[in-house]
Amino acid sequence: MDTTFHFDPGCPWTWRASRWLLLVAPQRGLTLRWRAFSLAIVNEGNVPERFRARSAASSRALRLVEALAAQGRHDDTLRFYTALGERVHDRGEELTDAVVDAAADAAGLGDARAALDDPTWDKSVREAHDTAYGSAGPDVGSPVLLVEGAPRGVHGPILGAVPEPPEAAELWDGIRPLLRSEVFFEVKRGRP
Hints:
This protein is α+β, with helices and mostly antiparallel strands. Helices cover 51% and strands 9% of the residues. It has a 4-stranded mixed β-sheet with strand order 2-1-3-4. It starts with a strand and ends in a 12-residue tail after the last helix.
């Protein structure tokens, strides 16, 4: 089953959801595709000063995500996002241009690194973002999950931690019918 995960690499909730999805994929036969969702676009013009450098670095990373997607290089995107996420979300490094560059190098993407600084990819980032937002929105953030055959995408799941493999599969099994339902909109509980 084709599953597209639209993500902003700066979001810690999204990072945990991506690690969950990686546990689910082999258990449920999912083919994963990785596409851009931009929190900078969601917050256009309203990014607080303290988050601007982080937002700019994330936007650079999304250029590479879309350049790789255009070539069907989703495994390369996963390697890049993993290298970036491990630095930022697991080790607590600040999301900066230097960290994005280091992640691209660690993922072996020297052939595609030019996309990081090529603003022509911004159009593709916006198009991928608009697809996700239009499918799951309004009022959604990162991540957005789109599943083949589902009428709409969903925002999330938002996870406090990455579940163990059996629970990860059970969570997928619970979410899948909601993804396919045309009448379902939201299930939510407050975060501690």
